[in-house]
């Protein structure tokens, strides 16, 4: 029988959010009784007649609605765009009304992560925006805990609402030690919660 899995789902244009997802996945994998699937969403075009190839040219596979419906936990990530969710991920989420109607995600644990170019450019706002549709889906939103010393000491990203990365104006995809540790802890803790709830 296949293991329950945590879905790490994101959009990333320049690679920072994708880099964060790798550390989060590493944290999830520390829980051996749970699997991880890492998925992205395709870009959206300015005209809706243009379709992306079904297989991405680079990076992890595109997410299907079934993969979202069948996950045991979800970790959702987006770059901060004007303090909110990037439209490709919002576009994907806006196609999940059948999952909402059938209650597929109710009582499943979830957490959120983001990357932004400026320190006060809205990391927290974006994390709250990411959590909002998950509340509508009836999910259990897990915070980051101050038990993680990195959350108090970070000079870059990292919030109690979820992991974040300060990419700066150069779009630096390399995470600071505190940021990567918080990503790993976030993955680990969500996996632990999923296991506790599925005992
Ligand atoms: C349309 C647009 C809006 C953006 N808005 C913000 C913002 O409000 N705050 C911020 O800190 N960065 C903002 N950025 C920068 C991205 O959030 C940042 O470069 C992020 O690290 C990109 O993640 P990625 O490398 O995964 O694509 C914006 C970028 C774009 C293209």
Automatic annotation (TrEMBL):
It holds the Pfam family FMN_red. Residues 6-190 form the Flavodoxin-like domain. InterPro entries: Flavodoxin/NO_synth, Flavoprotein-like_sf, Flavoprotein_WrbA-like, FMN_Rdtase-like_dom. It is an enzyme of class 1 (oxidoreductase). Its EC number is 1.6.5.2. SUPFAM superfamilies: Flavoproteins (SSF52218). Keywords: Flavoprotein, FMN, Oxidoreductase. GO terms for molecular function: NAD(P)H dehydrogenase (quinone) activity. Belongs to the WrbA family. PANTHER family: FLAVODOXIN-RELATED PROTEIN WRBA-RELATED (PTHR30546), FLAVOPROTEIN-LIKE PROTEIN YCP4-RELATED (PTHR30546:SF23). This is NAD(P)H:quinone oxidoreductase. The gene is wrbA.
